[in-house]
Amino acid sequence: MKTIDGNQVYTIARTASSFFFQRKSTTIATEDYQQIYNAIKDLLTLLSCAITFRSIALLEHYLLWLKLRLGAFAITDELFKYKMDCIRRALEAELDQKPAVYFFDEAVKNVQNQEITITPIDENVRTYLNYIMSMDREGALHFIESMMASGMNMHSIYLNILEPALYETGRLWQSRVIDIYQEHYATAVTHAAMSLIMTRLKENNGGGGLSVIAASPSGEGHDLGLRMVCDFFELEGIHTFFLGCNIPTESIYKSLVFRKPDVLCLSLTLPEFLPDVVALIHMIRANPVLTSMKILVGGQVFNIDPVLTEKIGADIYAGSAMDAVKQMRVLL
Hints:
The chain is an alpha/beta fold and about 325 residues long. It has helices spanning about 5-20, 35-50, 55-70, 75-95, 100-110, 125-135, 135-150, 155-175, 180-200, 225-235, 250-260, 275-285, 300-305, 310, 320-330; strands at about 210-215, 240-245, 265, 295-300, 315. Helix 12 links the parallel strand 3 (about 265) and strand 4 (about 295-300).
């Protein structure tokens, strides 16, 4: 099954959009048309990636996300189905490869009747979120301090307050309840909260001398989850070099050659950057100096389809920060 190249993505997106806009709905504002076109284009980019890595799970997850996002633009379930039909017709019109159409059809069928579940948030998460939505940074940090003073440990604060709060913030943005500036502000405050917590913890020297370089590839703009993992590693006494997100593949590789860590920890939220991770792993495997280094992967992409770990040539998959710690303890 051939993938869909960049030029084909734009052509199919234009064709699908023209089909869709032939049925203009009075519930769709004119200014939202570009948003709808962009959503079609992004979906086709994701489809290309899903085909490349033979991962229908990636496509199904994105379709569910798209249903929620488009619902915020007054796109009903009936219009969503029509939009999927427009994309299918465009694929048939512009591509001479039936397997890609079948792949798309199967994913759409699998999510057609799936409901989007919303995980309830507890009182502590809601309190923290209320401070953030009020843009009260000091109040949010004071609340985290009060949680520490009450005896809540670092793992519980990270996993039971900060992480759920960020998931909820992302959901609210997807639903157009909040603006993107509020989501970014939540991330910034949470980074500050994590720094506050880490300054209160005692250093652990029991990491057995293990060292880790942690990064996300170029284009990837999410690194808070990766930083949580690194903080957990530091608490275990593991020497961690946190590079952050949006790091070019060549730069990650240079850091590995320079430091020669025991483990490279890669986090990926967006599937379109999987080829960059594959390219990096190929570079690593070709260097005899790095043959003993383990590659641990995590993030939303691998949580959706853990089998991708093996497909791209990584060694270890961690489904959460605590799972990453468990994996590192095995290496110890």
